Every structure is written in C-alpha cells, then in structure tokens.
Amino acid sequence: MIHLTLLTLLLPMATMPAPALSALQVVIVLAGALLLTLLGGWLIGWFLQPFQAQLNKKFRPNSLRPVSGLKEGGRYIGYLERLLIFVFILSGQFAGVGFLITAKSILRFGELKDSENRKQAEYIIIGTFASFLYAILISLLARWLLASFTS
C-alpha cells in the first residue's frame, strides 16, 4: 500500500523534463544536502544531548529490557528523512512532507505505545520535530535561493 502511494506521488515528477541547472543552482542543491545531512546530524545531536543524558540516567539502569537498535541507525534515518523533505520541498510536493510525518508516526506508534518510559517517548518526539523543523527551514531557504537565481 505504501509503495503505491509513493508511486502516485512521484509519478508526475517522472514525466516532467529535467530542467538544465546552472552551476550556482547545483551548488545551492549540494550545499542544502550537506547542511541537511552532515551539519544537520551534528546540530540535532547537539540539541538532543541534554535529553540523551536524562534518558541514560533514568531509562537504562532501571530497564529490564535492554535498549537496542541498529548502530548509528537513528543518524541514518535522520539523514534520509531530511533529504526526503528536501526533495519534496524543492519539487513542490509539500504533501510529501505530510506523508512522511504520517508514515513515521505510524511506524513509531508501537514503540511509543509500548514504551516503559515517558522520557524515551518524549525524546523521540523532540528529536523528530527538531529534525523536521531544521529540514523544512533549510529546504525552504534552498528553494527561495533557487528561485532567486533562475533566469
């Protein structure tokens, strides 16, 4: 079902001719991608440090279940989310951002519902909102810059 929805959203983009980009426009797109991945990952991590410290103090020592996940999984999920938001906003598919938020909410619902610790749920929500806000702001800035330098 999800793949059909994605195909429906992306099909109009596949039939559009690709416009020729100037060197400056390519630089703007690459700079946006770097700001969203490398710098974005660092900024979101820095922003979440105080919350991570609280989570480690409260959750890990008292939990009967170990906290586990893919090594660096959250970092790569953040990179991909922010890049998808970038692509959706640059292509004018703003509904795609809403779809991404909905998909993430559905996927995380079970984890949040079964959480033994409210702090863990709040940490996830704060990180997600911070990441999405950063991605939307950088993407809108890149979109504005691209529009400003279009001949």
Mean pLDDT rating: 80
What is the structural class? mainly alpha
The outline comes out as elongated
Oligomeric state of shown chains? single chain
Residue runs with pLDDT of under 50 for 5 or more positions: none
The H/E string reads: HHHHH
> How far is the first residue's CA from the last residue's CA?
40 Å
Could you provide a short overview of the structure?
The protein is mainly α.
Plain-language structure description:
With 151 residues, the protein is mainly α. It has a domain at 35-60 and 70-148. It has five helices and no strands. Helix 2 (23-62) packs antiparallel against helix 3 (73-90). The protein is elongated. The mean pLDDT is 80.
What are the defining features of this structure?
151 residues, mainly alpha, elongated
SSE topology sketch:
Blueprint: H1 2-14, H2 23-62, H3 73-90, H4 94-113, H5 118-148
Helix pairs in contact: 2-3, 2-5, 3-4, 3-5
